[in-house]
Fold:
Amino acid sequence: MADDDVTERFRAYLREHDLPITSPRLVIADLMLHASGHLSAEDVALQLREKGSKVGLATVYRTIDLLVDSGLVMERDFSEGFRRFETARDVPQHYHLTCLECGHVEEFQDERIVKITANVAAAHGFKHARHRLVVHGTCAACQRAATPNARSSS
Structure:
């Protein structure tokens, strides 16, 4: 989907719900819809401030909620005590590994998980709609940092 298309989809969502198409909403949407990572509302506000925009944090939160409601942005919870968000456009089904030490989030794909969840749902009489998987643990870099150097004990 072209970038202009996704922006127009947000404008259309606002029109369909009789919501004003304001400059702050469009600036926030532009940043969120073109982001490559998992942003928090505070990340969005900070990036906007760095670009010279004076959009308030409350406006950021409200606009992110609209983006989630529109289906253009997905909410993620990595057990950090706050929500993160990522664009939903053209994103294949993927999962997340999140480091409990440094907070690093790594995405991965595995078709076997899709099949397993569909089979489990069917076995229990559920019609599978969607699923989410987040694996919490310690990333390789934090594991290396925590392992004492064997030569230092000699």
Notes: The chain is about 45% helix and 15% strand. The longest helix spans residues 3-16.
